[in-house]
Write a structure and sequence with these properties.
single chain; alpha/beta; Rossmann fold; Four Helix Bundle (Hemerythrin (Met), subunit A); 2 domains; 10 helices; 9 strands; 43% helix; binds magnesium ion
């Protein structure tokens, strides 16, 4: 569904949506919260956990060498590319094996070190507007979360705000693949053209959603320009979640589906 045109950048960017909105899906990392420094902190937590429980492994591996192990594994097993959790576990497994661990001892190392990572990975800073936006929007339309990463809205006490989630790990494909957006549309149970997808990544979120027939909204928080070498589909562009509220409001159903919390 086309968005209202401003005749701006290549005529494909607008500051308004044109059609009715019956569901909204959100990217998570850097769209609903700031991820800056979070993965580094989580990897530091892994390091600290290994130092305490498996000093022999910690003396041979740090965040950088574990990253190298994951890169090598991803090259050998490209099917793991969509599953960042499996890839991270495989990296830890390889590090443990190098130090002579096997069987249940190896699995205990993998699970403990991964749990240290995943706890740190959820120490994100929600943007101030995130909860008020989800509270308000969820009164009118179903909300979905679509992520390529391993953020879990349940760990952030956000699951109550979402009607459904779709992850690349579960689908076996990553955004911008149409498979991910098709799964989301199936769960939203409304026409694709009336779904708005919101994200910070121009290719994964905007190109992916537009190609799947959804209305796309791009939030370039850092003020970045659209890359010259990337095809630009029709989309709306906002600078904050507050601006998103402004462009969504005229297109929501007139009746709330549930009471505002
Ligand atoms: Mg993102």
């Amino acid at each position: 569904m086309p968005v209202a045109r401003l005749g701006g950048e290549r005529g494909l960017m607008a500051d308004a949506l044109a059609g009715p909105v019956h569901a909204v899906t959100f990217d998570l990392d850097n769209t609903l919260w700031d991820l800056a420094g979070v993965i580094e902190l989580a990897e530091q937590r892994t390091d600290e956990w290994l130092s305490r429980h498996y000093p022999d492994v910690a003396s041979r591996h740090d965040a950088s060498t574990l990253r190298q192990l994951r890169s090598a594994i991803a090259e050998r097993q490209p099917e793991l590319g969509h599953d960042v959790t499996a890839l991270r576990r495989e990296g830890l497994r390889a590090a443990g094996r190098e130090c002579g661990y096997a069987g249940t001892a190896l699995e205990a190392l993998v699970e403990g070190a991964f749990e240290a990572f995943i706890q740190g990975r959820h120490e994100v800073r929600l943007y101030d507007e995130t909860i008020p936006l989800l509270d308000w929007l969820g009164c009118y339309v179903p909300l979905g979360a679509i992520t390529n990463g391993n953020a879990d809205v349940r760990r952030l006490s956000l699951s109550g705000h979402f009607d459904f989630t779709v992850s690349a790990m579960e689908i076996g494909a990553s955004k911008p693949s149409h498979l991910v957006f098709e799964a989301a549309a199936g769960r939203a149970e409304v026409a694709r053209g009336s779904i708005v997808h919101v994200g910070d990544n121009c290719e994964c979120d905007v190109v992916g959603a537009a190609q799947a027939g959804m209305q796309a909204v791009w939030i370039p928080y850092a003020g970045e320009d659209w890359p010259e070498d990337l095809h630009m589909p029709e989309h709306a562009r906002v600078r904050s979640l507050s601006e998103l509220t402004r462009i969504l409001a005229p297109h929501l159903p007139s009746q709330a589906r549930r009471r505002q919390s």
